[in-house]
Write a structure and sequence with these properties.
Elements: H1 3-9, E1 13-18, H2 29-38, E2 44-47, H3 56-68, E3 73-79, H4 85-97, E4 102-106, H5 124-134, E5 138-143, H6 154-166, E6 171-174, H7 180-192, E7 199-203, H8 209-219, H9 225-234, H10 238-259, E8 263-267, H11 272-279, H12 283-289
Parallel strand pairs: 1-2, 1-8, 2-3, 3-4, 4-5, 5-6, 6-7, 7-8
Helix pairs in contact: 2-11, 9-10, 10-11
Amino acid sequence: MFIRDLFSIKSPVISFEIFPPKKEYPIEVVYDTIEGLEELNPDFISVTYGAGGSSKDRTIEIASKIKNEYKIEALAHLTCYTSTRAETESILKELKINNVNNILALRGDPPAHGFEYKKDYEYAKDLIKHIKEFGDFSIGAACYPEGHIECDSLDKDIENLKQKVSCGVDFLITQLFFDNEKFYNYRDKLIKKGIDIPIMAGIMPVLNKNQIKKMVYLSGSSLPKKFIRIIDKYEYQPEALKEAGIIYAAEQIIDLLSWGVEGIHLYTMNKPDVANRIIGGISKIRCAVTEEKECII
């Protein structure tokens, strides 16, 4: 199934994100993660691409496994900053052969660790155009409730998003955020700009202090006072901080579901036990807000 069609038959759509294991680890370790997530009945699972496409072979293999063996819809990430058009077409062919019909099209981070910018694409919109020309895929793209960290202003970032969407994007997944009000304000701004495709709210549970520092550095996401108080209170009590992070993420999701969000995308960090505590812990709420002929959660 194309993910674009999911939104017309079910609301909200619930999905998980996983990443391939590093090359020094056997790929089988991620299958335990998928099996742990499978019981939560996600509508799809996305698989990241790795810095500079470093895990692209494993991305295809894992996405294929999710789709063809676990019978769960798969969303393969694809970045373009370090790829040529020929390399991209080779990947698209492999995805089609493996019955993976959904792509999250991203520019990717600037090259590092031996990868170089190959100049065939400058922005994600260039990749989206290429995918649309190549074949029939359902295409997702990233959006940023507080603006992309490299963009001068949120308004300018929304103008860039509008161009990206017009190239053929079917749905959006937000970068992580910790303040739901920023998401709601962002959603209103997008509607005023004529961007009315489905948007999934990206939620990442915070499990330790170093993770928070890294996320804020990479994303530029702001931390609300309520969240800062939690960090300050439990920063030297890792188990308490982990528990508070899980509860905070669950409360964010409950609020988003009550507001009527079209989808929740949980960044699982390959920790199915955490996903289970968050999504499994709100199963009654999920069932209550799900609009479909029969709730099978």
